[in-house]
Design brief:
mainly alpha, 0% strand, Metal-dependent hydrolase, 302 residues, UCP07580, globular, disordered C terminus
């Protein structure tokens, strides 16, 4: 996999101390790397590409359908700060932008495959557009806090995908690799939005910063998750799975077996704690494992 990795940020020289924003827990030698990869351009995965399971397929298709427009929103928010942060942070912002642009591109391609099987994906994208329309005219710090919340949710999911093989068990290897690739970069850049927040709100009181961040994390994550469930049920309906049976099957998948939402809940809830920072959970071992050409020889994070 290492051969697919394009040049990203240069890492600091040995002994070169990188100054981070006050309150940041991002490791001083951490850098973002651009892995410009393409997936699913040849061939056509089966309709129920996730282990032949329409429920798991519907959930991941719902998440994927939400990503292109969401990634573009994150890019727009972060670009505002490009000339308002220290040079090192600005370089990380540019790397973040390239990573997110690549993610959006690949999920557009993947969503097109879902559409080729007859799924209505456009209605999901329309729902994301309507949700993000509510951010127009809001203070930029408001939209930055939304970005932090959704990036944290993505990082929590990514940690699960990379540490527990059950979540991608039985998935076409190229599709599984796309989700792993996306997950690695979500973890890699999980701290940059929060570091920008610390810099942008450095004149705020600690209480105001916490109140805005925690409240928006609760509101936007709840709304995003609720909409993903709604859209997954809509996709299941297109496969003839409806009513209470559909709700039970999706609930069981998310909360019981394999139960990703149950397993990630406490990691997600850390954003509600005072003193939160994404890098207080140091999972760089997952990045090294993905990037290593000898992945089996690298110890997992858990």
């Amino acid at each position: 996999m290492q051969g697919d990795q394009a040049s990203g940020l240069e890492r600091p020289d040995a002994g070169d101390k990188v100054t981070r924003t006050s309150g940041s827990a991002t490791p001083g030698d951490h850098a973002l790397n651009i892995r410009d990869r393409k997936f699913c351009r040849d061939g056509r995965p089966v309709r129920w590409w996730h282990s032949g399971d329409p429920v798991a397929t519907a959930w991941y298709n719902s998440v994927s359908a939400s990503l292109p427009r969401g990634e573009k929103f994150f890019i727009q928010v972060m670009k505002y700060y490009d000339d308002k942060v220290p040079p090192r942070m600005a370089a990380e912002l540019r790397a973040f932008t390239r990573q997110e642009s690549n993610h959006a591109r690949e999920h557009v391609a993947f969503n097109n495959l879902a559409q080729s099987h007859g799924y209505d994906i456009e209605s999901i994208d329309k729902g994301i557009e309507e949700m993000l329309a509510l951010t127009k005219g809001r203070p930029v710090e408001f939209n930055l806090a939304i970005t932090i919340a959704l990036e944290h949710f993505a990082a929590a999911i990514s940690h699960c995908l990379l540490t527990d093989p059950r979540y991608l068990d039985g998935v076409n290897e190229e599709i599984a690799d796309m989700w792993r690739w996306h997950s690695v970069e979500e973890i890699e850049h999980k701290g940059i939005t929060y570091d920008v927040w610390l810099h942008a709100t450095r004149d705020w009181s600690a209480w105001k910063r916490y109140r805005v961040r925690a409240l928006l994390a609760l509101l936007i994550t709840r709304r995003y998750f609720k909409n993903r469930v709604r859209d997954a049920l809509g996709l299941m309906r297109q496969d003839g799975i409806t009513g209470l049976r559909a709700r039970w099957l999706l609930f069981r998948h998310l909360w019981i077996s394999p139960g990703m939402m149950r397993r990630m809940f406490f990691d997600w809830a850390k954003i509600l704690l005072p003193g939160f920072h994404p890098w207080k959970q140091d999972d760089r071992a997952l990045i090294r494992k993905f990037d290593s050409p000898y992945a089996d020889a690298v110890m997992p994070a858990e």
